[in-house]
């Protein structure tokens, strides 16, 4: 199966051909995937080199000129390193762009901590007006990329990952999907965490919601799910643990409830290892999730939380 990032360049190249407003900005990463697009659209495909602050600043200038910029590099270089430009050049100037990241939380462990960005969504949460898509399958990535580019002049972040669920689902860029229904709690699985969550909750009497668009947070879907399943809620995210617990708490603010956020821990893992080893070390493998979810929905608090 191809990866989410494999879909990125062909989809955006097609959008470049179809829409004269679309522009692509790169900082070396992924530039080889746009060779033909650069030949056809030399004025709308720009590689600024390894200058990530310039990358976002140039995107802001293009947006001010009426273009719809699609900006791509690794998450740590797209959100964290040029955060001032994301905050000021896009946010303060009230212009939009589509930021499309790669490498996610720890897709490339050998790259070390400089190439990991588990805090990217939490960092964007400090700013106003961002839509955040977290696809869990290449088909969903393609759908959500098209939604993002077509979203007027909004500010949109699309978080691509090498981790993928086995099958794509019919996502619409807005709502959570109900994948399983139960009566003893609600588990919100974000993007590529769905398969592990489904394996972890097999035989448990819980509702599983699938979220690929986490901002805005689908409060209505969560409230509907709690009507039958109760107000014990677990949010399993492929980035910093607790990133969406505030949104879940807000959705249920008028109800007695408990929310547990599971995700990537704050402690840095200083050995390269493999992706699956990082996943297990953060308690995001199916076995660890089952223990933590089971204990919480039974009224306790999982070990390590």
UniProtKB/TrEMBL annotation:
One of its Pfam families is: Transketolase_C
- Domain Transketolase-like pyrimidine-binding span(s) in chain numbering: 2-167
What is the superkingdom listed in this entry's lineage?
Bacteria
* Record field: transmembrane: none
Stored InterPro entries? PDH/Transketolase, THDP-binding, Transketo_C/PFOR_II, Transketolase-like_Pyr-bd, Transketolase_C
Write the protein's name: Transketolase family protein
Organism equals Streptomyces cellulosae
**Species lineage, top-down?**
Bacteria, Bacillati, Actinomycetota, Actinomycetes, Kitasatosporales
């Amino acid at each position: 199966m191809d990866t989410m990032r494999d879909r990125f360049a062909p989809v955006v190249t097609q959008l470049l051909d179809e829409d004269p407003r679309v522009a692509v900005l790169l900082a070396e990463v992924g530039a080889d995937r746009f060779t033909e697009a650069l030949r056809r659209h030399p004025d709308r495909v720009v590689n600024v080199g390894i200058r990530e602050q310039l990358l976002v600043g140039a995107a802001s200038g293009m947006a001010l000129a009426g273009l719809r910029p699609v900006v791509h590099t690794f998450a740590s270089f797209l959100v964290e390193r040029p955060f001032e430009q994301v905050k000021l050049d896009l946010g303060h100037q009230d212009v939009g762009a589509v930021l499309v990241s790669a490498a996610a939380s720890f897709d490339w462990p050998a790259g070390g901590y400089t190439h990991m960005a588990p805090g990217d969504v939490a960092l964007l949460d400090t700013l106003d007006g961002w839509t955040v898509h977290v696809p869990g399958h290449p088909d969903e990535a393609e759908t959500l990329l098209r939604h993002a580019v077509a979203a007027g002049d909004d500010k949109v972040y699309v978080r691509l990952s090498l981790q993928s669920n086995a099958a794509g689902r019919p996502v619409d860029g807005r709502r959570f999907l109900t994948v399983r229904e139960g009566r003893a709690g609600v588990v919100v699985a974000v993007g590529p965490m769905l398969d592990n969550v489904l394996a972890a909750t097999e035989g448990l009497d819980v509702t599983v919601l699938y979220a690929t668009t986490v901002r805005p947070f689908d409060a209505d879907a969560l409230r509907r799910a709690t009507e039958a399943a109760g107000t014990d809620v677990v949010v399993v995210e492929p980035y910093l643990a607790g990133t969406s617990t505030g949104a879940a708490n807000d959705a249920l603010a008028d109800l007695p409830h408990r929310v547990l956020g599971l995700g990537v821990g704050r402690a840095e893992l200083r050995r390269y290892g493999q992706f699956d080893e990082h996943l297990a070390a953060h308690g995001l493998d199916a076995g660890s999730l089952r223990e933590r979810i089971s204990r919480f929905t039974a009224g306790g608090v999982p070990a390590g939380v």
